[in-house]
Amino acid sequence: MTTSQHMPAVFLDRDGTLIEDRGQLRSPSEVVFYPDTIPALRRLGERFRLFIVTHQPGIATGLASADEVARVNAHVVAELNRAGIAIAAVYCCPHRREDNCDCIKPRPFFLNQAARAYSVTLPRSFVVGDHPHDVALAEQVGATGIYVLTGHGARHRATLPPGRTVLPGIREAVEWILACDDLRRREAAAPETLARAAALLRAGGIVAFPTETVYGLGAAVFDERAVARVFEAKQRPRFDPLIAHIGDMDALPLLTPAVPAIARALMERFWPGPLTLILPKTAQVPDLVTAGLPTVAIRMPRHPLALALIARAGTPIAAPSANPFGYTSPTTAAHVRAQLADRVDLILDGGPCAVGVESTILDLTAPDGPALLRPGGVTREELASVIGPLPERPAGHGPPGVVAAPGMLPRHYAPRVPLRLLEPDEPCPTPPPGRVGLLTLQPPSDAGRFAGVECLSRDGDLREAAANLFGALRRLDEQPLDLILARRVPASGLGIAINDRLTRAAAAETEP
Ligand code: TXA
Ligand code: MG
Description:
By secondary structure, the chain is an alpha/beta fold.
């Protein structure tokens, strides 16, 4: 760590945030890290000083001795150290709530101690935890609280005051914190960029902005002329409706008159995040946005810059992905610049998109129950955990159980170089004559036979693969190739969305 002076910090709750909450732990052997904890904290530790702040009332009630708890904490720190992650200090409150001590969350005792002992800048710091007290703790010192849905997160969610940042787990919390830090640095380097973007949107401009899935090209949703400019810039057919992006729940009534209980449950679990819900539209949503449909697509993106832009603009933002129609979606600001720079008023840079494939689209207006229109960043399994299994429907184009959304053309997300699909376990054919590129999940043994090879994830991690997909397709497409061979990935989790995009990229140009 280079600058020890006035570094911001992240204060991490232990149980239910970094490790599984399995009741009172008395021995290191009972510690189970969440699989995301170590990779996430590695990235975080490069920019923030890390602390653990934990409440262990079992010491006061006799469920564990102070020594036992200290050994468990030491083990957690040692395991993180082994992975190259430094924990500056572990702060542990051993008291019961009725003891009325100074150090129990949400009292800021430990945070103030850290500020003094380690020169931590509290207003630029974060607290992450699975209890409303963790968020309240942040607010005591002007830091930012992040509530995670692991551990007790789902159980206590109802007691969390509205308007707080709620994220699925430590991985997304770290992505969020790093994006907030990027945003702060960018605003320091180029002050007022965000304000200018918001002013442009209010004045009928079109602005490209990052979301956690892909970059969007936005216009104020109720400004029909601005929305028309989005269609023009993308050369997008008018029959393909746009998604309305909102920043808080108060915006919902502007867009939809009716939010059924099932929609509420899905929003609570997946917003902000890569889930788009189709609901009935209000009269004021322009027909241009919905392509004349009586329904509107709504989502709350999980990127601090997107949410800040919507808040500053004071309007929901209608936005398709920021690419020419039918071409690969952009996952960096440079992708947008390469293809649309001269057609948009401003491009906001928020770094590479963490999810990398577009949102999942779920229609809640279909007469026979929720219908999955597009597989995306929220998996079928995750949806099922809230609303039960989705019925398999007769397949049109795309994977089984996915019905075509208006505008979901079979050829989409397509590079210029022709693309042919390989099955996950199909042996690689001898490359046909000409220059052939290979897109594959893990490194192949015969890479030398190809003019270009792109691997989506060395460890075969499908979330990493999704984040790399469109960038890898673009890099291949920029080379003088005659053909891209793309190997489908295992069809589970995000693999379904990856395969869907590959299938569309491969669809012959002659298909309707
Ligand atoms: O992740 C995403 O969803 C990205 C980011 C920018 O938010 N946006 C995105 O937008 O992928 P776009 O325009 O590329 O895809 C939106 C799709 C449309 O093509 C259409 O299939 C579907 O959403 N859609 C929009 N409104 C709909 C409606 N009322 N009924 C059914 N499908 C709708
Ligand atoms: Mg906890």
